[in-house]
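Readers of this paper often ask what the protein records in our data store actually look like. Below, we set out a record of this kind in full and without editing:
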Amino acid sequence: MSATFLDQLKGHTVVVADTGDFQSIQKFRPRDATTNPSLIAAAAKMPEYQGVVDEALKWAKKQAPGKHEDEQIKLAVDRLAVEFGMRILEVVPGRVSTEVDARLSFDQAASEAKARQLIAMYEAAGIKKERILIKLAATWEGIKAAENLEKDGIHCNLTLIFGFHQAVACCEAGVTLISPFVGRILDWYVKNTDQKTYAPSDDPGVVSVTKIFNYYKRHGYQTEVMGASFRNVGEITELAGCDLLTIAPKLLDELQSTTGTLPKKLSVEAAQTAGVEKIHVDKATFDAMHQQDRMAFDKLAEGIDGFSKAITDLENELKPRLASI
């Protein structure tokens, strides 16, 4: 019997589960797992995880007795992300990504403080910081926060990567990992151009991640590339060989049920011959390139707004439950 695409992909690339549902993670046995506010909010609504939600609310009330409800709720949401992270780490052998509040994306100091708070929660539960990736939006402020955190041994995953300038700024800052969003790039091109369909190899998101991967490997950067936000299996198979790929359960299921030959598409060797010139990105360059890249400008703002809304919605849903505890 032929090996499944998922089994073959694991031979080329580190497979990461993109979900807060640790029962799905148990099924596919990835090395790592990632979460984001939308995924945490979705998991928090599942009946099987109501005990996890209650634990987070009880913890927040105990930690901040007498504090205003809003402060307790913010603490509970952070704790909920950590609670899911802790349970995920019981299933995966590697790392879990836990995201800093997206509403802090343009505040470097607040982002750093929140990251350290999340790490302290994990360490208080006996989990070493080496198993955590702190997710930050790849604004200039988020990248600079990550640069400082990395110097203190707190590893970061810079998310909502849409533009090449973001990727270059991240590797120059020495961040551990970036998450370029493949499917959301495709979404923008389908919406904003006349072309509505793409072959997998011509998919704008695939092209973007391939360019970033080749640039990093060609110029010797240690920052890992983790393709994310996939719309179809074709996008995934075109990036076989990328350092990591974080994949939603639905597409993991499809990969697991597909057989045939899955060739490696990206490699360090091929990257050495890629014609990607080295550039430097300071804040002025970052801002100028970001203004010129309409897709990256639109999608970064949209992504931050979406994750911020997910957190606010979750806080509002938790308030009545907090009051009843």
